[in-house]
Amino acid sequence: MRTVNGEPSFHLGTPELDLHLTARGGHMAPVVFHLAGRDVSPYSLSPWEPAEYPELPPLLSVLRGDFLCFPFGGQEVGPPHGETANAEWMRLESDGRSLRCRIDTTDSGAGVVKTLETREGHHAVYFTHEISGAEGEFSYGNHPVIDFSNLAEGEGRVTTSAFHWASVYPGAFSNPAEGETQVFEKGAVITDLSAVALAAGGTLDLTHYPTPVGHEDLVMVAHQPVTDEQPFAWSAAVLDGYVWFSLKNPVDFPSTILWISNGGRTAAPWLGRHRGRMGIEDVCSHFADGVVESRRGLLEKHGVATTRTFRKDAPVTLRNIHAVAALPDGFGAVGRIVPAGEDAVKLIGTSGGEIVVPLHWRHVVRPA
Length: 368
Known about the structure:
Elements lengths: L1 E3 L2 E7 L3 E6 L5 E8 L2 E3 L17 H4 L6 E2 L20 E5 L3 E7 L6 E7 L6 E9 L3 E3 L1 E3 L2 E3 L8 E5 L2 E6 L27 E2 L5 E2 L3 E2 L5 E9 L9 E6 L3 E7 L6 E8 L14 E8 L6 H4 L13 E3 L5 E11 L7 E6 L4 E6 L4 E5 L10
Antiparallel strand pairs: 1-2, 2-3, 3-4, 4-5, 6-12, 7-8, 8-9, 9-10, 10-25, 11-24, 12-23, 13-23, 14-18, 14-20, 15-19, 16-17, 19-22, 20-21, 21-25, 22-23, 26-27, 27-28
């Protein structure tokens, strides 16, 4: 156990990466990937330490990197994003290539085993969450927060695989009475992330990030079903000469939430300093509204699932992959990610360039 950014954390180190997972809340960061000739660290560490805000839920005081939300959002009894993002995880084992932890929750009744795996030569984290003991309809999601704050305005690039529906959050995501600012038009339908409607008129290109400082907004995109040619959904962030990307099965994670956190909150602990961050979150949820709202099925008319049925006697396994790779100059944004054989993927840039990345993409593919 090490203390990292003020929080006791489990450590997993391999030639490809050094990873830290907080015991409290199971937040994964920092993760330093050892690429050829340089180290990169894509996940956000909040600009405060937990001891500064002991009165806040651990979700906020610890806030960093990626964590599991079960349920996703608020709930009537229990902390926001669930005990999985707030309470203590117990380490079960670590074999030098993987880390397994467990939490037994009282809010949802779920027992969750988190396994973070690595593979030789792969600059990737393979996630498996095994959920048992829960009964009923629940929202859930993985919540990676990526740090673009060292980039110039618009220098980073954000793209996703094809989607069949997307929208700005339909309500007031930011509350001016609490010193919060949003700029997107509430409920605006999105057909292209490069032209998101602004409340004041005009559009903003969300594929270029950071955006101008001073707003907190939320967008959700629902991915197209998989095909033989495109057997997974993906999201990607081009940073400083490298790319972070995630793979998932859209049956398990129908949507991706883009949480734009760019200095639009001025109350504690934010104080306007949480800038240039973006949550690129794989979810089954109604935006970040919480489990009660998600159970209403408000997006069924758009073919978007917002909860899943869990049974105590039927464990559910959820899988994701997060990976990084160096990019050549002029690569542009990621336009496509497709399989390149059985143990690699090809990233195709909007400029026409291509790279092949070692990756066991079948980790996220459901058995036939």
